[in-house]
Design brief:
The complex is a heterodimer of chains A (380) and B (594). Chain A is mostly helical and 380 residues long. Chain A has helices at 5-50, 54-67, 72-84, 88-104, 109-121, 125-137, 144-161, 165-178, 183-195, 199-212, 217-229, 233-246, 251-266, 275-300, 313-324, 339-358, 363-379. The longest helix of chain B is centred in the N-terminal third of the chain and has 35 residues, at 36-70. In chain B, the strands form two sheets. Chain B has a three-stranded mixed beta sheet with strand order 1-2-3. A two-stranded antiparallel sheet of chain B has the order 4-5. Helix content of chain B is 64%, strand content 4%. Chain B contains 25 helices and five strands. Classes of the chains: A mainly alpha (380), B mainly alpha (594). Chains A and B meet through helix 1, helix 2 and helix 4 of A and helix 2 and helix 3 of B.
């Protein structure tokens, strides 16, 4: 052993400290140089990515990362470019970058959102939901409320695309509760409700938009459509009129308005009409049903009068129509309380069967079909 | 007088005397604390620090060279791919031949030679030369890696430090491997693999002192590298899975492919290297340039991935960025380019090329297998990782290191079974087709005879049981009277008898001694009371026969006892039986070795 070990160790410590300082200086200079190059390449990558040139973006981000391997922003951008390049082989690499980042900062909402999008690309509902939730409840550096709602909206869109309506509806409810008083946000939520076939939810959101912005024709049209789909024709007519007046080019609202008005005119079940009007509507519907049945039989080449032929659904309905026709005369009797329903039942069956056999109806037939569907839904 | 008094140094006050004495006392106390072993352990930490600092600089130098010579990655120009490796190759050749002789090749063998031949001596000039020339060669695109040069730089620094500190020859010999572990750990950012490699391939034996030093130096160098360069892993590891045990067959196939590729790689180096060295001297100046030109040509023709260490390409292969055919082509081209670069004499390492070839081969085999067997669940990344270990086991013949290297790099223990299976298969295939490991082959080509650690591992050791004679028919008892024992030996013809002592232990007595005791009228004494109290040493059957050699000259018979019951005699060994066994082995070995 050397005789003056402590002296040697002191000298070695000094030498190590000097070496440390020297290498620190070198590394700092090299790193600064590399970081400057990295920033330039990163900007090139961002520009290329913004222009949709993902291959160029990926190559620039990779080069930027060779200059500054620990830069989380570069890694995140590379992962996003890999994911957005629509090359399934690159998803693995994107995911591994993101997982590495996530392991370091699991609370980072942007990383979780990026991972959620990778999972969404893979159609993995479980992973995507988990990461979207992490993003919603994670830490955002700026605009946290806006970004959280945006993440939730993305999740809902993903769930709707994957046809998972129940999860989508629960997310929609949470979204509706957290939306700020901004018509645009409520309009987006209403559209998502409509996409999820939650007409009541959609109507409520459209009404919120109209409360905040009464002249919003798009919201009026949406509210009218939602009300129409939910069988609330009076409300539908009210909003669709606003929509049609607000936007004369809105043919869809006009068409829906016409149909809704037809339903209101044709329905014998309206509460505010007289007995005479009710009987008139039943009689008109009964006659319309016979016409529809005959036209449908003709369209299909069926002879409803022929004897000995096997009984088709149309022929059966014709028989029922003929059987109940004499009862029309007794509609005026106050004792016949069940008769209107019995007659309309035949009408509804004819409209439903002919819609199935001969395609979608028009005009009064369509109105009667819609009334039948509403009755059916109400009875269920 | 007054002048004298005024010129004299001021007399220290009482307090200043105390202040001077305290450090001296402290120093003497500290010196007392440091025996050579403790000092060596502390020195290992410093070796790790200095090696780590050197490797950080080395890596910066390679990156800087790459940038300066080949340009930034996306903008590398075609002409540079040709010109740079060729021109830099010329410069490297001049430096290697004229300024830094002895820095050719990887550095592993030089470190081993320092340990076994040169008493731990590696010139510090080697570290400088290796640093400059390897940075130039690798930075200019030669198909070599930075790990082995880092290993040699670490070893050289450690050796120089040991010489400066004038430590004992025994410790000085170990300085180089300790520095080698530090250099390798820093280069790989993987301390366990580095420690194992140095123990497995350079030192070849385990002891607490060596292991402690190697571990300390490796860990401290890795800390330094992570301090300066961050702890980013070499690769971003994808999701790796191993679900069905039946898939081990698929990994075994990869092991076979890896073993064959290892043999091809080793044989091409083994064939070309001596032939190129035998060419006229002036060609040595051109060989690195020609190798660089050919490597550049391969890169220009569409495979720039083979230039340099290739870690970025391995990373991309791991994430399924290449089709299997391209992966297979890259594996073949890397074998070719690394062989050219290495045999040309360019300084640079084989670790990175080995990993590269394994990664590409693993990816190719895995993807190909999945075409035929779509139910296989292992991802491309899993096969790439396993492939790395496979080549490491097959080419470098470091089976333990190969397993731990994959685990350490991947941080995933789920794939340990596929890694072990594939690496073992590869190792066995390689061993059966290429008897001499690559590092041993290179040393033999250089005219050095270093111990082959693989051969050492495989050597069958003679044990005590191999020379053991059956339990003698007559065993005397120390508790019996001399008369009784004398009566017992009358039926025997043996000249020497074992005596079972009470309560345990063994002794020995000759027929002649027992006869004399009987004649001297000591028949009424117990044998134990008249024997010397010195007991015989006992041996166990599984001990190396070398252990018996220490005793056979002093004792005519040595008992071999059971490990669980020292009174249970398994047999005996004698000088004749031991020497006979060694003689019979030599008789068998001589024809085998000729």
């Amino acid at each position: 052993m050397p005789r003056s070990a402590p002296v040697i160790l002191v000298l070695l410590t000094l030498a190590a400290a000097t070496g440390f300082a020297g290498v620190s200086h070198l590394v700092a200079r090299f790193t600064a140089n590399q970081q400057a190059r990295g920033r330039k390449l990163y900007q090139q990558g961002l520009d290329a990515g913004g222009a949709g040139r993902y291959d160029d973006a990926i190559s620039a981000f990779r080069a930027a990362l060779t200059c500054d391997p620990a830069n989380s922003q570069y890694q995140l951008s590379l992962a996003r470019a890999l994911r957005d390049s629509n090359d399934p082989r690159r998803l693995d690499e994107a995911e591994s970058y993101l997982i590495a980042l996530w392991q370091r900062t699991p609370q980072d909402a942007a990383i979780n959102l990026a991972l959620a999008r990778v999972a969404a690309h893979r159609a993995s509902i479980e992973d995507a939901t988990r990461y979207y939730h992490n993003a919603m409840y994670g830490v955002w550096n700026a605009n946290p409320d806006f970004n959280r709602n945006r993440a939730r909206i993305e999740l809902i869109q993903f769930l709707l695309k994957e046809r998972d309506s129940s999860l989508a509806e629960s997310e929609l409810m949470a979204l509706a509760a957290s939306l700020p008083h901004d018509p645009a946000d409520h309009l987006r939520a209403a559209q998502l409700f409509a996409q999820a076939r939650d007409n009541a939810g959609a109507l409520a959101q459209y009404e919120e938009v109209l409360r905040l912005d009464p002249r919003n024709a798009e919201a009026a049209a949406g509210a009218g459509a939602a009300a129409f789909r939910s069988g609330n024709y009076a409300t539908a007519v009210r909003y669709l009129r606003v929509a049609a007046n607000g936007d004369p080019q809105d043919a869809n609202s006009r068409e829906l308005l016409s149909e809704a008005e037809q339903v209101l005119r044709a329905s014998p079940f309206q509460s505010h009409i007289s007995d005479a009007e009710r009987n008139r509507r039943i009689t008109a519907a009964f006659a319309q049903a016979e016409q529809r049945l005959s036209a449908c039989a003709q369209q299909r080449g069926a002879d409803l009068e022929a004897e000995g032929s096997p009984e088709s659904p149309l022929a059966s309905l014709q028989s029922r129509w003929i059987a109940i026709k004499p009862e029309l005369a007794r509609l005026k009797s106050p004792a016949e309380t069940a008769l209107p329903d019995a007659i309309m039942d035949v009408v509804f069956q004819i409209e439903q069967q002919t819609a199935t056999s001969c395609g979608p109806p028009q005009g009064l037939d369509l109105a009667l079909l819609l009334i039948s569907q509403k009755r059916e839904a109400a009875s269920q | 007088m007054s002048e004298l008094a005024s010129n004299a140094a001021p007399r220290p006050s009482h307090s200043s005397v105390v202040r001077l004495h305290v450090p001296r006392r402290l120093f003497s106390t500290l010196e007392g604390m440091f025996n050579e072993d403790v000092f060596f352990l502390i020195l290992s930490v410093f070796i790790g620090i200095f090696s780590g600092l050197a490797v950080v600089c080395f890596r910066l130098a390679i990156d800087w060279m790459h940038l300066a010579l080949l340009g930034p990655l996306p903008e590398t120009h075609g002409w540079r791919l040709f010109a740079v490796p060729s021109l830099v190759g010329l410069l490297v050749a001049v430096l290697v031949i004229k300024v830094f002789p002895g820095i050719r090749g990887s550095g592993v063998n030089q470190t081993k030679a320092a340990l076994y031949i040169f008493n731990g001596y590696i010139p510090f000039r080697t570290a400088i030369g290796k640093f400059i020339c390897a940075a130039l060669a690798i930075g200019s695109g030669q198909s070599l890696g930075p790990e082995d040069p880092s290993l040699q730089i670490g070893a050289s620094i450690a050796s120089a430090l040991g010489r400066q500190l004038e430590i004992s020859r025994e410790k000085l010999r170990l300085m180089a491997p300790v520095g080698a572990a530090a250099g390798l750990a820093a280069a790989f950012n993987a301390p366990i693999s580095a420690v194992l490699f140095v123990i497995e391939e350079v030192i070849g034996r385990w002891s607490a002192g060596i292991l402690g030093s190697v571990v300390l130096s490796a860990v401290s160098s890795v800390v330094i590298v992570r301090w300066f360069l961050g702890s980013e892993p070499l690769f971003r590891i994808p999701v790796t899975t191993f679900k069905r045990p039946t898939e081990l067959l698929a990994y075994a196939v990869l092991g076979v492919a890896g073993g064959l590729a290892s043999v091809a790689f080793a044989k091409s180096i083994g064939y070309l290297r001596p032939r190129l060295k035998a060419l006229p001297g002036w060609t040595q100046y051109l060989q690195p340039a020609v190798a660089g030109l050919l490597v550049g040509l391969i890169a220009f023709l569409g495979a720039p991935q083979i230039m340099g260490a290739g870690y970025d390409s391995m990373d991309q292969a791991m994430h399924g960025q290449y089709a299997w055919k391209f992966l297979a082509i890259l594996a073949v081209l890397k074998i070719l380019s690394s062989t050219l670069s290495f045999v040309s004499g360019s300084p640079g390492g084989m670790f990175a090329p080995t990993l590269f070839i394994g990664a590409m081969l693993g990816g190719a085999v895995g993807d190909l297998e999945r075409i035929f067997f779509p139910h296989l669940t292992g991802s491309t990344g899993t096969y790439v990782l396993v492939g790395m270990g496979v080549l490491f086991a097959g080419f470098l013949r470091a089976p333990m290191t190969s397993v731990f290297m994959v685990l350490e790099v991947s941080g995933n223990y789920e794939i340990i079974v596929p890694v072990i299976v594939a690496n073992t298969v590869s190792y066995l295939v390689s061993r059966s087709l290429q008897t001499i490991p690559i590092f041993d082959l290179l040393t033999r080509q250089d005219g050095l005879i270093l111990p082959s650690l693989e051969e050492d591992r495989e050597e069958t050791i003679l044990r005590v049981e191999d020379a053991m004679l059956p339990v003698p028919a007559t065993i005397l008892s120390a508790q019996d009277y001399v008369d009784a024992n004398h009566h017992r030996i009358q039926d025997s013809t043996e000249p020497i008898f074992l005596v079972r002592m009470h309560p345990s232990g063994w002794n020995v007595i000759s027929r002649e001694q027992l006869e004399r005791l009987f004649r001297e009228g000591k028949g009424e004494h117990t044998l134990g009371s008249v024997l010397l109290s010195q007991f015989l040493p006992s041996l166990y059957p599984d001990l190396p026969l070398d252990t018996a050699l220490r005793y056979v000259n002093d004792y005519p018979l040595i008992p071999v006892v059971h490990r669980a019951d020292s009174r249970r005699l398994e047999g005996v060994v004698s000088r004749e039986s031991v020497f006979k066994k060694y003689g019979s082995r030599r008789a068998i070995e001589v024809p085998a070795s000729t």
